[in-house]
Amino acid sequence: MKEILFSDKIRRAAPELKVLQISAKCTNCPTSDSLWEEICMECDRIASSFKLDEINKRPAIAATRKAYKALGKEPNRYRPSAEALCRRIVTGKGLYRLSALIDIINLASVKSGYSIGGFDCDIIDGNTLLLDAGTPEDIFHGIGRGPLNIAGLPVYRDRKGGIGTPTSDEERTKLSLDTSNLLMLVNIYGEEMEPVETLGLIKSLLFKYTSATSIEASLHIAATGDTVSL
Prior knowledge:
By secondary structure, this protein is of the alpha+beta class. The chain has one domain (3-229): Phenylalanyl-tRNA Synthetase, Chain B, domain 3, CATH 3.50.40. A hairpin with a 2-residue loop joins strand 7 (154-158) and strand 8 (161-164). The longest helix has 17 residues, at 33-49. It has helices at 8-13, 33-49, 59-70, 81-90, 100-112, 195-210, and strands at 3-6, 18-25, 115-120, 128-133, 141-142, 146-147, 154-158, 161-164, 181-188, 213-221, 227-229. 32% of the residues lie in helices and 25% in strands. The strands form three sheets. It has a five-stranded antiparallel β-sheet. It has a four-stranded mixed β-sheet with strand order 1-4-7-8. A two-stranded antiparallel sheet has the order 5-6. Helix 2 packs parallel to helix 5 (100-112) and helix 5 (100-112) packs antiparallel against helix 6.
């Protein structure tokens, strides 16, 4: 598990922020038909539950957007990933079928409303992550997006630089089929699904589809700096 620190900028912009950290040993693989069936069922639920203009009003998504605005970022240009995924579903574009770990994250994200980062823990440099606001000087290559302007976005940094924002993760620490040491960060800017329920959902998916072992979880509270083992 990583130590997670919060900058004063983040605390001021997102006083309700909690981060659910999950680590696990696992086997990534192509997405199975049974996992894809679960994803399709959730996509059908999202499509029947929300109109396009209602997605950004989901409590978790609205709170993430509020934090973006407080940091000076326009959330309609840099949408949180949970919002972007739900918009794809509601507009009939569907989700990409990628790999078990990535698709588990996407499923948990649309179900909970939380933007979730997934990282190859073996590539992260150091045992501490700092969540801070991005700056114009940050060099950040979003996965599948190329250079991304993360000024004003909340960004987790290791010793080498940024690894993830609620909009996109960085190419350097991305998940691959070789990933066996998973780090997942669930960004809870405003509560929609209970953190313990979110953890239970993710654990069940990891057990079922990646043969996960050694799962550990902790909840990090930005306002106080406290960490609670779950």
